[in-house]
Amino acid sequence: MVALVSHHDHEGDTWHIEGDADGTAYHRCANYQTAANCNWLRPAGIASHHDRGLCISCSLNRMIPDQSVEENQVLWGRIENAKRRLVSQLIALGLPVRSKLPGVWQDEAQGLAFDFLRDWPDQPVTTGHAHGVITVNALEADDAVREQTRAALHEPYRTLLGHLRHEVGHYYWDRLVAHTLWLSTFRQLFGDERSDYQQALQRHYSQGSPFDWREKHVSEYASSHPWEDWAESWAHYLHLRDALDTAASFGLTADDVESRVQPFGVDALWDASRKGAPEYLRLVNDWLRLTSVLNELSDSMGQAPFYPFVLSRTVVAKLQLVHEVIAQANT
């Protein structure tokens, strides 16, 4: 968060960050006064023939719910709040964030775009990813609808931010794993993604998951297909990083809590010789210690566990690959 100082010039209203020595000028995102309530900035002076005056996060939107419907304004506002948190984290991790859409942030071939569509009785919307476009049912931003869906699918956890993190995991698999040297390692840890995807999902929903899915996967849905295993693992890694970073920003670290959780050792790693292995192992063990306390706090309030998942040794190895892929993308 920064404090802004208004400045008027030939480009219209521009802003400077208070105390910023270099005097860089910014414009507010064009969605500042919409239901998105976007408080992000964009550098002044960058423009293109197709410029829409949007920040990098809002520039990713291809379709939004009909804003003439008041309820959709509320849903879109919640969606954008979650998406800004996602995009902020992706940028902080050094991941490539570009838009498929025309404008200053454009990368049509490899960029990302979001379609936020409203689910109607005669027009059902399925959340998913295809060729860089992530479709999200806007009703996922309705707490009551989302809880009904979670209960119907017997899920322990379902959030709007979790959905976005999962789907963007598919996008980054296409960008950072497929057709790269990581692919063979991915197949060793997650399985062969060339197995029929639609058949795998049909089998998952008709027959359920293997009895031992907890030993190999971070969630039940992750057991349906290697692509879903990756997306679920990716989302959980982003959960882990964001929660730990947020705690640290308030001066809370795993060293501040007492926990009887048995930490993972190097034998749980996929590759203990990787340069980032020590950092990754520390992150995972800090996560275990912190969530064990947070789960107890949730229980003391009569709430569902803060983090209702158990990380097995196999999952820890898979998450290390996610960690390494992200670290390499940042080099």
Give a brief description.
The protein is an alpha/beta fold and 331 residues long.
Average pLDDT works out at: 92
Instruction: Name the helicity range.
Output: 40-55%
User: What would you report as the Rg, rounded to the nearest angstrom?
Assistant: 21 Å
Q: Please outline the major beta sheet.
A: 4 strands, antiparallel
Order of helices and strands: EEEEEHEEEHHHHHHHH
Task: Tell me the span between the first and last alpha carbons.
Answer: 27 Å
Whole-number count of domains: 2
Structural class: alpha/beta
| Count of DSSP-assigned helices | 9
Walk across the major sheet and give the strand order: 1-2-3-4
Portion in strands = 5-15%
The counted number of beta strands is 8
List unreliable stretches of 5+ residues: none
What is the general shape? globular
